[in-house]
Design brief:
By secondary structure, the protein is α/β, with parallel strands linked by helices. The chain has 11 helices and 16 strands. It binds NADP nicotinamide-adenine-dinucleotide phosphate (NAP).
Length: 346
């Protein structure tokens, strides 16, 4: 028999999966460790004695019955172009909610397109991109919007001090690049547009202490799927500090290194959000440490709210649609600092 405290983590031994497992334990949940590699699962159990591990592969749908007994599943195994659909299928079969950390625009679009009706009919919730990219930006945009239901533009600027990508990030980027045939993507006129234009470099006025930074414009992230999924905003733009973008594409890009007892790297971030409607602007920003580590409290807070009935909708939905966005961000105050400029309140 399962318990409402059992939460399956698929890809549990990956870099992000490990943060998610630790966060679940810290919050009193019992992670059920899932992945395709038995040796890696056993090594993870050594670090977490007493936890159950089950081998499961997306290539073998029957093995995904390993979800049985869990109250929810968090999918941390990317590329999600490969793992999301089989895991959502398995979650729907098991009748449990599904949350993933996918930062792949096309895979996130597919999750909305393929599972919206079935998830709604099942009365369950499927939340793609419930992580730093996609989820956090959507919560911030939804918070900045306040009582607005529509806006002309939403801008999400990522002020990363550096970006040491994991193998999973690089693999996900390569898969997305292949799916686009090497083209670039932006969200304009209320839809995704594929193009070959060079990306602009501009200066973004991050709040102090970071201040103005050179950023790559149209560095398009999963927020272009999550935000328009529930807010009427025809122009959604995302920006990345030029230094972090260069780190990511460097031929010798190296994985993050832990510098504290929680395993977090020294990377810091500011996510600065600006929404504009008519002549009025509203802003909100969040600062924190390590984009992989912060994805764990985001995903686990989502699961906690789902399992305790603090949701606003069913079906496939992004963070800002499912949860009370300002309340959600407030609940993460030990991980994230929020900044609301006085001159753009209200
Ligand atoms: N939205 C965000 O902000 C955000 C944040 C964090 C992570 N992510 C995404 O999450 C994914 C994982 O990132 P990571 O940092 O944890 O990378 P990682 O340390 O390289 O881990 C990747 C994990 O995915 C598993 N995996 C890959 N392909 C699989 C498949 N076909 N079947 C089963 N498992 C598979 C790997 O298992 P094996 O070792 O067995 O291959 C490993 O557990 C990436 O796609 C990344 O982009 C997104």
């Amino acid at each position: 028999m399962g318990s409402s405290r059992n939460v399956a983590v698929f890809g549990a031994y990956g870099h992000t999966g490990r943060f998610v497992v630790a966060e679940l334990r810290e919050r009193g949940y019992v992670p059920l460790l899932l992945g395709r590699d038995q040796d890696k699962l056993l090594a993870l159990v050594e670090a977490h004695p007493g936890l159950e591990a089950r081998q499961a592969s997306v290539d073998d749908p029957a093995s995904l019955r390993a979800l049985n007994g869990a109250a929810a599943v968090i999918n941390c195994a990317g590329p999600f172009a490969t793992t999301a659909a089989p895991l959502v299928e398995a979650a729907l079969r098991a009748g449990i909610p599904y949350v993933d950390v996918a930062a792949e625009i096309e895979a996130n679009v597919d999750t909305f397109a393929h599972f919206a009706e079935r998830a709604r009919a099942a009365g369950t919730v499927v939340v793609p991109a419930m992580a730093f990219y996609g989820g956090l930006g959507d919560l911030l945009v939804t918070t900045a919007m306040g009582d607005w239901t529509a806006a002309d533009e939403a801008h999400i600027a990522y002020g990363l001090s550096s970006w040491h990508p994991t193998a999973g990030t690089l693999a996900a980027g390569a898969v997305s690049g292949q799916r686009r045939g090497g083209r670039r993507v932006r969200y304009t006129g209320g839809r995704l547009e594929y193009h070959d234009d060079a990306l602009p470099t501009l200066e973004w006025p991050f709040p102090a202490p970071l201040g103005p930074q050179s950023v790559i414009g149209e560095f398009t992230m999963a927020d272009v799927v999550t935000v328009p999924s529930h807010l009427a905003v025809p122009e959604v733009r995302t920006y990345m500090t030029a230094k972090a973008a260069a780190d990511l594409s460097a031929p010798d890009a190296s994985a993050p290194t832990a510098v504290d007892e929680r395993g977090r790297s020294a990377q810091t971030f500011v996510v600065d959000v600006l929404v504009r409607s008519g002549g009025t602007e509203r802003r909100v920003a969040a600062t924190g440490r390590d984009i992989y580590a912060i994805s764990a409290p985001l995903a686990v807070e989502a699961v906690d709210r789902i399992l305790t009935g603090r949701t606003r909708t069913t079906g496939v939905a992004s963070a800002g649609a499912v949860f009370d966005a300002p309340d959600f961000l407030q609940a993460l105050s030990s991980h994230l600092s929020l900044h609301v400029p006085l001159d753009t309140r209200g």
